[in-house]
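ugh ok fine here u go
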Amino acid sequence: MKLGKVGTKQRKMMLIYVCIIYIMMLGVFGKLVYIMVVKGEYYSQKALDVQERERRIKAARGKILDRNNNVIASNKTVCTVSVIHRQIRDTDAVIKMLCEELDLEEKEVRKKVEKVSVREKIKSNVDKEIGDKIRSYDFDGVKVESVNTINRLGKVKRQGRTEGRRPSTKKAYITLTKDSKTIEAFDNMAQ
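structure:
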């Protein structure tokens, strides 16, 4: 008889534990539904923003001339030259080539090339022709990056009978290579 009462008590305790676990799982399921259904659009937009890396660039303005028809300002494609220390095999040849092509002092270039870092920027706003020439040397660890840009016409929007257009934008798309720095948002996903 005593044995039967203990079994009933254990069943009641087991039922309480099962109910608590069920309520906890229901809470987790509810949170999941909230994130997926209610906040789904918000998190989709955040993921898209992280993947695209949008940056505003002033629109092309053509050539600006002074009264004597001398060009004061114009648009042109430029590059950024940088080095990755751990990939360089022939340091002296890289330093010599960069000094000649970029018209920089050897001491300044040597300091940047021999610096142990993930990526060290040597010079920005380098003409595209010089960037292509540096790229043609095909040295390991020397990277010449240019940014691809796209002009996007603003969307047509209506308010009542009136139609208008949102401002046009210029987007810059940067392609990440395997030697690029990681995106912080995706670091936890890789583990």
